[in-house]
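Cast an eye over this sequence plus tokens and walk me through the fold:

***
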Amino acid sequence: MTAKSLYAYTLQPVIYEVSEEEQRHAQLVIWRSTNKIGMKAWIIMGVIVALSILGILLLKNYSTIFCWVAIVCVVLYLLVRKYGLEWYVKRKMNEFPVQEIKGIRLGVQPHGIVMRQQMGAQEGVGAIGWKDVYEWYNTPEFILMNFKVKGQQGAYILPKRMDSKNFSFNTIRKHLTEAAGEAKQI
């Protein structure tokens, strides 16, 4: 590192507070990433619609009803999958409270993310090593890190507003890429 380059690690931990809205948004974005319609389903729906259109063109009178019903079923499936499931998931997420994240400070170090939290008169310190992160997501609004330490799973939602000279997202991305590979796509 040259004298002119900035120090890439945290000298003073930054405040880590994630609002309920940010947590809900992150949960929804991650759920949306898992709710993709697979290629097999698209092929099946395409074949059903193609055969139904062919049936409408070639069959006469009341025989075309089952073709129209098949097209309506495909459209209903798409609407329920896109809007109905998301409505249901949002409703279910609102039934469970989110954990309030306040009073925590985070720092970036060569060995991992360091967390400091005031607990009464003492300050607790913990660290999540880069090697403990097994997957991560990079979205326009946040970075999500999933990790496993001593058999317990956890996650950090790092909103992009935290990106600063004391908490460099470039450094975090570099270490995450080295330790856990490229970011998962959402």
Summary: The longest strand covers residues 101-109. The chain has two domains: 14-18+100-180, 33-95. The mean pLDDT is 86.
